[in-house]
Structure prediction request, 162 residues.
Amino acid sequence: MKIYLDMDDVVVDWMAAARAIVARNWNYGERIPDSDWNKVKAKSRFYRDLPKKQGADELVDYCRSLLAQGRIAGLEFLTALPHDYSVPLASYDKVLWAHERYPDIPVRFGPFSYDKWRHCAKGDILIDDRASNCQEWRNAGGLAHDYRQWPECLEWLQANGL
Prediction:
């Protein structure tokens, strides 16, 4: 079994950075209005410059310890490209971001959010902030946690024997 960690709003504080640009809040799962998305994507290196999400290091360190103990077979980031190809450097900057902060963890792309389930082998784990990704992962035979905060995720991992 492998653990796949989403990047945006799991280890990267995407939502806080985007909200700061547009000075407005959205709810998780809500589609960002085009006018707001246009402001976010105007910052061409947006994905490179994102801050870590609170609890990111704890989540990654916990998963690394599971890997070191042989309790999981792999640990990777599984992220997605913007659905409209509107941020040309997104893939490069996401890999760069991860390499600078977590150089031992490879980055895999869906390539889009709705494709993530295609990477699931039976029993694999996805930790993702998008409920639809988690449900599709479960439908493909994996386990998934709808991520909001590290303490809740830790509780979920432990409840699932990890």
